[in-house]
């Protein structure tokens, strides 16, 4: 394993190509959520002034970076993908220690992150415009893609390698310079990701990292007039406010937010497969995935059998410290997230849902130092209950029983969110109706709600997402400005006006 060159005890900012310690007095510990006695490092909460310095550094680097040919920018990003791949074990371990997901989940995140960086790197050779015919003779018209300028990437803690990677890589390839503000809970992985891009050979100032709170560093980036685009992933509360702030300044904003993803199981479904996908979708990554399965919508005819099998399979989920082998579900990321989950368990009981398994904090010596909650299933949940409507972001599944396909579809669509969805059925007619009518940005047929591939667009509709899709070739649509060019080569005065 390659050893990090950055001291892990106090995480630093990366501004103008230098690792610098914040001068702020505010500090928080980076705590392992599986073992709260293990302090991984200390984050200094940077000031607004330090965020401004990072923006100025990005502004200074912009001219040189935007004039670097796109394929050359892509080559540097490809180098970052190779370094990430070489250091994936180190990154995966840091990810498990500070976020809590299991090592195999961390390796999965790493694989996806590397794919995203590789895919974006190759876009440097495909940053094409179009040639478009003109109505006029002897006129040549085309479009070209240009950098936006200084941009900000504001990211959550739940995919602290992959999400920064899928934002930073295409932003760089498109010729922008960046200020990266990661979640305060995951400074170590943010440091490693930044270190890797820097080692790939980015000129000073092209990528800057500022650690600090959303209320200070985040707010500064959102309101700083030199920042011309913001890509945000996180909660609805913060994202929708941020989108308004960005719109008021007339800048590009992309906000990917929460989800309440349904899996619909019809009577002709392959039940063993549907059960497996529901359990891994609900409890994988401790339910802390934006694409986690949080509602299983099942037709009444098969509901008893489905729930019985679901409960049996859930008993096999092994909760514990994600670095240990055999563990399939880690802790909540911190105390506050665990308390939110526990609060929703009380809400579910209070609303009259039938608790089938789980329902409390894990008990026993081996769980005493971590934020572990039991994988929980509520049955007979009504579609309007809070546990069926609100994002919990923990290992809690609501089973909603419906009479038929039409009701299933109505229930699936009856939430404010629209990120991912899944259908288990073998009936071609209902499969295509589902694809057409389900209100989500991503949908799966006969596979679970989580997942995403580097070359496929990722994002949600309704309250989940605003702005262009991330990942895939759509990423460059957000990270570049399109210019339309008219070249008239008639060389003589033209009669009349065109519009
Ligand atoms: P969050 O609390 O909204 O935080 C996200 C980021 O925004 C963090 O870096 C946070 O900084 C920052 N922030 C907080 N207040 C801010 C402000 N006033 N101005 C600017 N930035 C601010 O979300 P989270 O708890 O980290 O992440 C969980 C949420 O992310 C869930 O809702 C999940 O569904 C969503 N998510 C969505 C997707 C998707 O693609 N749709 C993917 C992953 C996660 P601090 O850490 O310092 O607070």
Task: Tell me what you see in this structure.
The protein is an alpha/beta fold. It folds into two domains: 4-257 and 464-483, 3-Layer(aba) Sandwich (Aldehyde Dehydrogenase, Chain A, domain 1), CATH 3.40.605; 261-445, Aldehyde Dehydrogenase, Chain A, domain 2. The protein has helices spanning 48-66, 70-86, 88-99, 103-123, 162-173, 187-199, 214-223, 236-248, 271-283, 300-314, 335-351, 386-389, 405-413, 428-437, 475-479; strands at 10-11, 13-15, 18-20, 27-31, 39-44, 131-132, 139-147, 150-154, 177-181, 207-209, 227-233, 252-256, 261-265, 293-299, 354-357, 376-379, 396-402, 420-424, 442-445, 465-466, 480-488. A seven-stranded mixed β-sheet has the order 15-16-17-14-13-18-19, with helices on both faces. Strands 10-9-8-11-12-20 form a six-stranded mixed β-sheet, with helices on both faces. Helix 1 (48-66) packs across helix 7 (214-223), helix 2 packs antiparallel against helix 4 and helix 4 (103-123) runs parallel beside helix 5 (162-173). The termini are far apart. NADP nicotinamide-adenine-dinucleotide phosphate is lined by residues 154-159, 181-185, 213-215, 218-219, 222, 233-235, 238, 242, 256-259, 290, 391, 393, 419, 460, 464.
Produce the secondary structure layout.
Layout: E1 10-11, E2 13-15, E3 18-20, E4 27-31, E5 39-44, H1 48-66, H2 70-86, H3 88-99, H4 103-123, E6 131-132, E7 139-147, E8 150-154, H5 162-173, E9 177-181, H6 187-199, E10 207-209, H7 214-223, E11 227-233, H8 236-248, E12 252-256, E13 261-265, H9 271-283, E14 293-299, H10 300-314, H11 335-351, E15 354-357, E16 376-379, H12 386-389, E17 396-402, H13 405-413, E18 420-424, H14 428-437, E19 442-445, E20 465-466, H15 475-479, E21 480-488
Parallel strand pairs: 1-5, 8-9, 8-11, 9-10, 11-12, 13-14, 13-18, 14-17, 16-17, 18-19
Antiparallel strand pairs: 2-3, 4-5, 6-7, 7-21, 12-20, 15-16
Helix pairs in contact: 1-7, 2-4, 2-6, 3-4, 3-6, 4-5, 9-10
């Amino acid at each position: 394993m390659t050893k990090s060159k950055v001291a892990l005890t106090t995480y630093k900012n990366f501004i103008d190509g230098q690792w610098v310690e914040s001068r702020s007095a505010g500090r928080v510990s980076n705590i392992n959520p599986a073992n709260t006695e293990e302090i991984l490092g200390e984050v200094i909460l940077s000031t607004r002034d330090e965020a401004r310095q990072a923006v100025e550094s990005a502004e200074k680097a912009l001219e040189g970076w935007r004039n670097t040919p796109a394929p050359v920018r892509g080559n540097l990003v490809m180098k970052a993908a190779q370094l990430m791949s070489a250091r994936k074990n180190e990154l995966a371990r840091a990810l498990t220690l500070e976020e809590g997901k299991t090592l195999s989940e961390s390796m999965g995140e790493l694989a996806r992150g590397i794919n995203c960086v590789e895919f974006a790197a190759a876009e440097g050779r495909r940053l094409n415009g179009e040639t478009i015919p003109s109505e006029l003779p002897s006129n040549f018209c085309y479009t070209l893609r240009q950098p936006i300028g200084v941009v900000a990437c504001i990211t959550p803690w739940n995919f602290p390698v992959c999400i920064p990677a899928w934002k930073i890589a295409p932003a760089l390839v498109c010729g922008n310079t960046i200020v990266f503000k990661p979640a305060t809970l995951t400074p170590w992985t943010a440091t490693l990701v930044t270190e890797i891009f820097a080692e790939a050979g980015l000129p000073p100032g092209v990528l800057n990292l500022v650690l600090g709170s959303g209320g200070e560093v985040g707010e500064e980036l959102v309101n700083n007039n030199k920042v011309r685009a913001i890509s945000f992933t996180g909660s609805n509360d913060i994202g929708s406010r941020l989108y308004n702030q960005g719109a008021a300044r007339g800048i590009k904003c992309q906000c990917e937010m929460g989800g309440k993803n349904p899996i619909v199981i019809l009577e002709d479904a392959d039940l063993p497969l549907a059960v497996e996908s529901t359990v891994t979708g609900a409890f994988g990554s401790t339910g802390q995935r934006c694409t986690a399965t949080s509602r299983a919508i099942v037709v009444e005819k098969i509901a008893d059998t489905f729930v019985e099998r679901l409960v049996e399979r859930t008993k096999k989920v092994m909760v514990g410290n994600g670095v240990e082998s055999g563990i399939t579900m880690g802790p909540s990321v911190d105390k506050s997230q665990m308390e939110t989950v526990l609060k929703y368990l009380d809400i579910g009981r209070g609303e009259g849902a039938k608790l089938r398994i789980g329902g409390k904090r894990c008990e026993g010596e081996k769980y005493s130092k971590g934020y572990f909650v039991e994988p929980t299933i509520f049955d007979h949940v009504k579609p309007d209950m809070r546990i069926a409507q609100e994002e919990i972001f923990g290992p809690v599944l609501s089973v909603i029983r419906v009479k038929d396909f039409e009701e299933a579809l109505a229930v699936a669509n009856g939430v404010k969110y629209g990120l991912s969805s899944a259908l288990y059925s073998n009936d071609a007619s209902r499969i295509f109706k589902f694809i057409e009518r389900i209100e989500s940005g991503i949908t799966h047929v006969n596979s679970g709600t989580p997942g995403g591939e580097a070359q496929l667009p990722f994002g949600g509709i309704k309250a989940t997402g605003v702005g262009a899709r991330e990942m895939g070739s759509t990423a460059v649509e957000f990270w570049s400005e399109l210019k339309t060019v008219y070249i008239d080569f008639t060389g003589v005065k033209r009669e009349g006006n065109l519009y």
